[in-house]
């Protein structure tokens, strides 16, 4: 049976999270000592391979892959080490500092900036054709500031989605066959709903992801300074202030506890969520089945960039200090092959990084018309326009919180848009100047 997987898991495994991937205990095994020479044979030697939180629920899948690969390549030994999510960042940093690194390691794209300088340029180990099997929007962002390709994509939780309570939206003659596709259209729908009902319509407010959907560059090319303090960004922020002031945007939208907003689809205190974490649909189904039955699912709204932003994904890298890079690269090519990614997707509600995987009937022939089935269909449809929005800063989460704090001050009128952006720019530059 396919298991569900929370977005928090998919994007923040390094911080620890909830089922089904959570493991308890410490890191098993010891990193092999750093070798001074490469084996020179891509099909020989030991490959120490780190993953995140897979042992408990997916050991059979992993061990089957290892057995199949080593049967084909008997001179290769795969030493699988599964690391608890809350430990991966500190353990990998410690391994890099000691020189005793894994040969291949799973981490998240949101921590790319922490590890980029210690990772091998994979364009030296993967051919152009081999790299071409990964979706460009997922693979191309996995480069360091100097252009080195320091990771390849593995799996993700899909883009965000739009959820619309058709029962509440009857008051404005909402057509679920023609939902908003742009942020401006979502703003217009929110205004119409509030005018008709005097109730809040949505929680959508400016964020890093929202600015990225307009094509706003958040960081300079070298990733050392903020780049978003522009007139264009200020104009985007200014779209939202009138809606917040009128109540069309729910007053609780500026809460610092974004996982527990006071006005939600669940409690019917907002009518729609046009750019929502996809796994929140499971929460609606569990907490408010009557609302769930009324939900129409659509692609998320976007700005002007015609792309859907992924807030992060699971990736693989090969540390520079690995003594068996060639064999490590061959193993990663096998793990991330379209066939092996498809097998993994059949076990858990995740999405692949290879376009070929999505051509399988498992994805092209999704049955059912319930919201969950429609969500899966829609996530597959958004794949060609999905882009990893990770910043590569080394501390993406903190930068997001700093930006959110300024938006939370701006919307109630404590600052102008220009003041909020300037303050966010200053705090980002301070954070970016810290030694990693």
TrEMBL record:
<dbReference type="InterPro" id="IPR050490">
    <property type="entry name" value="Bact_solute-bd_prot1"/>
</dbReference>
<protein>
    <submittedName>
        <fullName>Carbohydrate ABC transporter substrate-binding protein, CUT1 family</fullName>
    </submittedName>
</protein>
<keyword id="KW-0732">Signal</keyword>
<dbReference type="Pfam" id="PF01547">
    <property type="entry name" value="SBP_bac_1"/>
</dbReference>
<dbReference type="InterPro" id="IPR006059">
    <property type="entry name" value="SBP"/>
</dbReference>
<feature type="signal peptide">
    <location>
        <begin position="1"/>
        <end position="24"/>
    </location>
</feature>
<dbReference type="InterPro" id="IPR006311">
    <property type="entry name" value="TAT_signal"/>
</dbReference>
């Amino acid at each position: 049976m396919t298991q569900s997987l929370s977005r928090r898991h998919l994007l923040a495994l390094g911080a620890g999270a909830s089922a089904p991937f959570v493991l308890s205990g410490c890191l098993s095994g010891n990193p092999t000592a750093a070798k001074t020479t490469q084996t020179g044979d891509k099909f020989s030697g030991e490959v120490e391979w780190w993953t995140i939180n897979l042992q408990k629920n997916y050991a059979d899948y992993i061990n089957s892959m290892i057995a199949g690969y080593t049967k084909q390549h008997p001179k290769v030994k795969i030493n699988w080490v599964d690391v608890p999510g809350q430990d991966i960042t500190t353990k990998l940093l410690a391994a890099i500092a000691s020189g005793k690194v894994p040969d291949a390691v799973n981490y998240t794209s949101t921590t790319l900036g922490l590890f980029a300088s210690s990772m091998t340029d994979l364009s030296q180990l993967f051919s152009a054709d081999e790299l071409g099997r990964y979706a460009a929007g997922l693979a191309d962002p996995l480069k360091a500031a100097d252009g080195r390709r320091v990771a390849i994509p593995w799996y993700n939780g899909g883009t965000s989605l739009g959820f619309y309570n058709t029962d509440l939206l009857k008051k404005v003659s909402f057509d679920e066959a023609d939902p908003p596709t742009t942020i401006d259209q979502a703003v217009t729908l929110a205004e119409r709903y509030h005018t008709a009902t005097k109730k809040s319509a949505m929680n959508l407010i400016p964020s890093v992801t929202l600015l990225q959907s307009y094509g706003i560059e958040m960081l300079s090319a070298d990733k050392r300074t903020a780049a978003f303090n522009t007139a264009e960004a200020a104009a985007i922020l200014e779209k939202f202030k009138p809606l917040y002031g009128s109540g069309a945007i729910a007053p609780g939208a500026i809460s610092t506890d974004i996982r527990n907003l006071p006005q939600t689809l669940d409690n019917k205190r907002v009518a729609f969520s046009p750019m929502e974490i996809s796994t929140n649909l499971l929460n609606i189904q569990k907490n408010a089945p009557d609302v769930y039955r009324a939900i129409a699912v659509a692609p998320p709204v976007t700005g002007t960039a015609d792309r859907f932003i992924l807030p992060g994904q699971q990736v693989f890298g090969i540390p520079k200090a690995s003594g068996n890079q060639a064999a490590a690269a061959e193993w990663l090519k096998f793990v991330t092959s379209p066939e092996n990614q498809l097998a993994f997707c059949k076990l858990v509600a995740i999405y692949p990084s290879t376009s070929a995987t999505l051509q399988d009937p498992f994805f092209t022939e999704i049955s059912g018309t319930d919201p969950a089935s429609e969500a899966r269909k829609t996530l597959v449809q958004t794949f060609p326009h999905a882009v990893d929005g990770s910043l590569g800063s080394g501390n993406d989460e903190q930068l997001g919180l700093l930006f959110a704090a300024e938006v939370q001050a701006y919307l109630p009128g404590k600052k102008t848009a220009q003041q909020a952006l300037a303050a966010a720019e200053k705090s980002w530059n301070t954070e970016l100047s810290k030694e990693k």
